[in-house]
Design goal:
DNA-binding; homodimer; Helix-turn-helix transcriptional regulator (chains A, B); 0% strand; globular; 83 residues; mainly alpha
DNA sequence: TACTATACCGGTATTTGAATGACGGCCGGG
DNA sequence: CCCGGCCGTCATTCAAATACCGGTATAGTA
């Protein structure tokens, strides 16, 4: 085994992360937030919809910064089940 | 351009992140910390040496948890220059 | 009703990198 | 001398990030 495919748990965890980001975005548009965070709108959409379940550390950091979220709190909320 | 190659700034940022993790690990062995975090020793070494400059969010989270580091503080320390 | 614009979604395709494993080498302590 | 720990390199597989397409839903305008 070289690069273990993502487990269902990891995908669920990614979905929760996406939902948290979506919630924090509120009424703002994807394009707006994505541009401010320095990522493409497509990437943000993939993360929010859970199609990119394990985004890069600094990608999440940039989004958290724009959305005014704490990394620790974000992690705690989406890892509560996964541990 | 589809997947912009990592910029030198991003690589430097990754190196700082690695140095911080290395520092926090202290006298503990790589294999020990890696096992506890649920990643391979090779992966931990790559991150510490900066050869994996943009690790996954949950990978960093697992290491931070084992090393007793705050995600926000970790981010602040390695992003001070890159902004 | 029809036209237009915005915002989001699903799928597809592409490139680059993360994550892992394996082998060999180097160094310091038992 | 050997063993633990770390490093470098090579090879492999899967996913992140990006872009483009068409589709849907909603709101505004005429």
């Amino acid at each position: 085994m070289v690069r273990t495919p993502l487990t269902p748990e990891e995908r669920e965890r990614g979905e929760r992360l996406g939902q948290l980001l979506r919630l924090a975005r509120g009424p703002r548009s994807m394009a707006d937030v994505a541009a401010e965070a320095g990522v493409s709108a497509e990437t943000l959409r993939k993360i929010e919809t859970g199609r990119a379940p394990t985004p890069a550390f600094f990608t999440v950091a940039a989004l958290a910064r724009v959305l005014g979220l704490s990394m620790d709190e974000l992690l705690a909320r989406c890892a509560m089940v996964a541990a």
